[in-house]
Amino acid sequence: MAGIVMSAHFPRRHVIAAVAKNVFRYLFQGAARNWARNFGSTAPALSSMTLLLLLSGLIGLTGFALYNLEVIEAGQASTLHVYLRDDADNTDVFTLQRELVGDGRVLAVGYTSKEDALKHAQSVPGLPALANASESNPFPASFDVQVRSLDDVAGIDALVRTNTAVDPMYPTSYDRGAYQRIQAVLLGIGVAGFAFLALLAFVAVTVTVNSIRAAIHSRRDEVAILQLVGAPRWMVRGPFIVEGAITGSLAGAVAGAITFGLAMAGIAEGAASFSQFAPGVTVSVAVVAAALVFAVGLGLGSGSSLLSVRKHLES
């Protein structure tokens, strides 16, 4: 009696789903189990990467605040206050104003009277005592000149300094080199922060590479069998890269959460004072910073593992 052989036909989507499930189980579940099993060798990489990412997030927020502070200082420095003589002739004052308005380097010209200058000084800490010490108003009237570029301030200052309507003792608010000093300080802080982060990044990558190398050596028999049976490259390398990604993502999640928490604590503690100390740092900025920290951690862990795998596994 002849036997009958029947072949089963499975829908393509079922085959694809089964393959995807097996790949997920092999790459991710297996990598997670091995990562947990080798946590002792992974812990140094996790801690160093968390420290690196936390400092990166905090330095990034600080750099963003310093950049906004520089923009604010640049805007203030680009406004030149031209102080007028108390006994200046009205014709001379009007001629100076018309000359400033007609200058192509000037965006706008405002006027502050002596009374308005006194009111403003009384709202500035330390100046009310100076105002009350004199029987008359010691603050002069001024033209508030908004220039197009910070580089034009010196030229406008040279133009008005010798004008007959300008106070010869204290002609303008121009402080040569003040903004350049601010830029020099910010540049120094930026260079120092970048160098420090580069050093931490080198340490974190080195520790992660060594932890992946230890994982490879601990499973060298399994790797050798896979290579002997002709397993594709992604099957051999994939689990180790996923392990590095797990380390980086966990470090990024912890560092991102701490970065977000510290930023929110600063915002909640005092919105007015914090906005002056760290202008531009808001809740949305803190969320973006935390997300970037997580993404950098994921990339750093995966990249470090890829370097280790390419170095310690045969191509």
- Rg over C-alpha atoms, rounded to the nearest angstrom: 33 Å
Count the helices. How many?
Answer: 11
Secondary-structure element string: HHEHEHHEHHHHHH
What is the overall shape? rod-shaped
Q: Domains counted in the coordinates: how many?
A: 2
Distance between the termini: 54 Å
Structural class: mainly alpha
Strand segment count: 3
Q: What portion of residues is helical?
A: over 70%
Structural features:
315 residues; 11 helices; Alpha-Beta Plaits; three-stranded antiparallel beta sheet; mainly alpha; 2 domains
In short:
With 315 residues, the protein is mostly helical. 71% of the residues lie in helices and 6% in strands.
What would your notes on this structure say?
- The chain folds into two domains: 170 residues, no CATH class; 82 residues, Alpha-Beta Plaits (2-Layer Sandwich).
- Helix 7 packs across helix 11 and helix 9 packs antiparallel against helix 11.
- By secondary structure, the protein is mainly alpha-helical.
- It contains eleven helices and three strands, in the order ααβαβααβαααααα.
- It is rod-shaped, with a radius of gyration of 33 Å.
- It has a three-stranded antiparallel beta sheet with strand order 1-3-2.
- The mean pLDDT is 77.
- 71% of the residues lie in helices and 6% in strands.
